[in-house]
């Protein structure tokens, strides 16, 4: 068994030969998926992510976009929250926006990198196969799905990231990952990249803090708008996948959706909309497609400037999903979910950012 795991990890390293380094697998000692020891002396080109430049994780096929330090406003105005809940506006539920504080100026002091897309099913598979990981949904054998026909959540057996209950390929965002399943991926990626000397000192791969996510989602815009492209949701046509007018064969569709089609009822491939779907930082699908786990615990009073480590079981989700209405597709909208709650519309995006001192 141990041998199998050793080979699967080494295989993963060898398979990433397109990266900008030369790796001899015999210099890495791996037991049960853990990189225990590594020698940098002769093995690797010392090429690291550099500030002001994007970084390419070739083995995953993921570009990490550089996000410079700066200031922005976290939260929303009362006017925006009223629009979000209005049946003629954002069509959200009134309660959803009560956890957004008035605009709070926040400084992002250090630059960081964030994935151009969310982690795809194909990327997550690399992690699963490297360390023989089993997700929460797979261990439980039963999880929750949302029935578009009855408009209700229900239990379902056998659903997981491998089989979410709708059609996906490996370019779609991974779903049915709990917060812990997402953190496990980040931990693996950090250790793998550190073993290659490709993580800047003091940085790590992890989930974004809520403020980091919101700052990146605004795309560098200094104007506070509902969406990264402005205040008019209809200018989102051709940019995002959410609860549009698309219908199943039996004509069922998401309720309270907008009246144009976006091409998908469930997930779309990441970056499906290309340039129009990317904000000014080049980030795709920040709004819609899948909710994105953040590092922070959920504070019902407000979003926080610094990552809030809380022992509560709720964690932040951001950006709305394929089944959401315009009110909850705003940059300021805050979602939350149980730490052990995999769902068919929850995924994640990683950052390469200042390491968090874990206090839990
Ligand atoms: Ca859609
Ligand atoms: Ca998203």
Please tell me the CATH architecture of the largest domain by its name: Alpha-Beta Complex
Tally of DSSP helical segments: 6
Domain module tally: 2
Q: Rg, please?
A: 20 Å
Percent of residues in helical segments? 10-25%
CATH superfamily of the largest domain: paralog of FGE (formylglycine-generating enzyme)
Main traits of this protein?
360 residues; alpha+beta; paralog of FGE (formylglycine-generating enzyme); 2 domains; five-stranded antiparallel beta sheet; four-stranded mixed beta sheet; 20% strand; binds calcium ion
Report a brief summary of the structure.
This protein is of the alpha+beta class and 360 residues long. It has helices at residues 2-15, 78-85, 121-131, 136-140, 179-195, 210-217, and strands spanning 28-31, 34-38, 55-57, 62-67, 70-74, 104-108, 112-115, 142-147, 152-157, 203-206, 291-297, 314-318, 334-338, 346-347, 351-354. Helix content is 18%, strand content 20%.
